[in-house]
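User: Sequence for Phosphocarrier protein HPr below. C-alpha cells please.
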Amino acid sequence: MQRRVRIAASVGLHARPAALLSQAAAAQQHPVTIAKVVDGEAGAPVDAASVLGLMSLGARHGEEVELSGPDEAALDELAALLAQDLDKAPA
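Assistant: C-alpha cells for Phosphocarrier protein HPr:
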C-alpha cells in the first residue's frame, strides 16, 4: 500500500519534523518506507523510522513523498503527521 502526501513542515523533513515522524514510524507494528516523489515517480525509499534516512531525502516544504507499508492505518497516521507543520512547537 502507498500514500502520497505533500510536506507541510515549513522547513521540510529536517531535524524536528524528521524526529517526530521517525518516532511515529518506529511505533508502528510494521515497517514503513518513505520516498521523495520527483516528476511523478517515487525515488529510492528509506526507512521512515530513521531520522538520518528521512533527512537524506532532502524533502522540502510543498514537495511530495510516498509512504509505503502493509498497514493502511499506519500510512494514514503518518500521512496525517506530514500534512501538519511539524516544525511548530506544540502549544
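The chain is about 30% helix and 20% strand.
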